[in-house]
Amino acid sequence: YWENEDTPYPYGAGWFNLNWKDNTFSIWPATGKTAPHVPDLEIVKIRRRNSGIGRGAGSERLYVYGRNLKNGRRCETTTMPYPYKAFAYALRKRLCENGIDVKGRYRKEGDPATIAGMKLTPVCTYYSEPLLTIMRDLMYRSDNTFAEGVLRAQAPGASREAAVKAEIELWRGNCVDTDGQLFRDGSGLSRSTSVTPRFIGDVLGYMAKSDYRDDYVSLYARAGRDGTVRNLLKETPLAGRMALKSGSMSGVRCYAGYALDEDGAPGYVVVLFVNRYSCSGASLRTAIEKFMVENMASRLGVADKITDDDERKCQ
User: Fold this and answer.
1) Which residue among 86, 200, 260, 294 is least crowded, i.e. fewest CB within 10 A of its CB?
2) What is the pTM of this model?
3) What is the tens place of the pLDDT at every residue in 102-136?
4) Quick one: which of 245, 56, 42, 22 has its CA closest to 139?
């Protein structure tokens, strides 16, 4: 349900059974060099005024656009069609470099070949970061691939539809009304996914009263300080007092999270969705900042910190 036009960009990196290096790589169009190496990649160069890249979902053909495609300094970051191929190549290369002979090709699930009866020697044990660390990284960077993985964790080994069903049943079991919500993915990059501000507000309200409150609130970046909201409300009385997650695409700008009390606990749920706006992004952000300052500063007891500069900035 993601748009093809999002496929080649890092925010559109897909989710696979094996994910590696955020499923992205660097490419120098002039030479065709990639880092890491991506096997079976076909590069098609097309001269035009505006530079860019294009690749359809599942395709191993990458289109590179630009006026000067011989510029050796130009580098693009794009997405891997099939991460397992790049990983297998790198693993084989590293093993061979260390004197470990590799025979044959990697095996796919369902191959008749089996390892039954073979003596296996573990060569590496890798431990994941704790879920809380992964979630915080996901939220601060707004990582769509990580978000898809977290959704799929609701139904390991099953389909996306099964994971969505499990997620809906989870919230229904906690008395959150899910009627009218449409989930097509775990990140919201799909334009088919649609949820209401009330639903998001109900989820935030539930979590603010749950036993996981402190951990959950810690996942959110602080406006004016870090994450994707580091420039929002910067140099206003609300800087550091709003724990928010941002979300945006063409014509859409959303923020959701909490206004925090002096102790850093959630005092108010905050949800703001803007759809189909026609003004500039900068004008919209100024309007959102003005709205938040006017409505939250007095509630949080920081209205007396509003200066004349703040007033002029919000005009």
Assistant:
1) 294
2) 0.85
3) 876 655 555 555 566 667 777 788 898 999 999 99
4) 245
